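Practice record 12: protein with nickel (II) ion.
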Amino acid sequence: MVKLTFHGHSCWDIESSSHRLLIDPFLTGNELADVGPDAFDRLDAVLITHGHGDHIGDGVEIAKKTGAQVVSNYEIANYFQAKGCESHPLHIGGGADFPFGRVKLTIAHHGSTGPEGEALGNPAGLALTIDGKRIYHAGDTGLFLDMRLIAEMNGPFDVALLPIGDNFTMGIDDAAKAAEFIDAKVTIPMHFNTFPYIEVDANEFVEKVRHGGRKAVLVDPGAAYELT
Ligand code: NI
Ligand code: MN
C-alpha cells in the first residue's frame, strides 16, 4: 500500500511500507498547510518540481533535519547542495532508481526562478514508481498534449496530482482535459485556494472529470488517499 497525505498547495507526503518522501514542502507561510516543517523526522527524500518559493518552501530546513536526499533538476540540486543538503540531480526526460523507487522528471510549462531570483533551470513534473504504484505529480504547468506521451511511457498511472488553480497553472477546464490525457485511475486536484489569485471551486473540477467518465477525488489538507 502507498499512502499519499496532502499538506496543502502542491505538498504531498508519500509513504510506502518502507520509505517516506515529501514533494514540494511549502508549509511555512501557507495558511492551508496542516503541519509545519518540524512535523518530519524521518524522510528518505524531498522532491522539488521547480524553484518557486511555494514549491521549494521549507525544503532546506526539512532536508537538513531529516537527512533526506533532495531530488530535483540539476540547478535545484546544486542550490540545495550549496546550502548543505545532500542531493541527486536529474533533468527532464531522465530518471533514476533510488532505494525508495524511481523518479523521472517530465516537462512542465512554467518558470523556475528561486526564492531570491536565482536561475533554477526548467520546471518539471514527476513520474514516480513507488512499490509498484505509478504516480504523476504535474508540478506547476499549463496544459500540453504531451501529457498523453507521459502517460504512455510512464503509466498507466494509479494517480494524477494536477494543479487546477488557474492564473499560474491550468485552470479547471484545462486540468479536466489533462485528466483525460493522463487517464489515471484517480485524479486529485492541487494548487488552488492557497492565495487569492488561485481561488477556484475544486468541486467543479471533480464533477467535470467525473462527467468525463473518470474518477476524481478531493483530498483536504491533512487527509490521505491510499493506493491499494
Ligand atoms: Ni510555480
Ligand atoms: Mn506554484
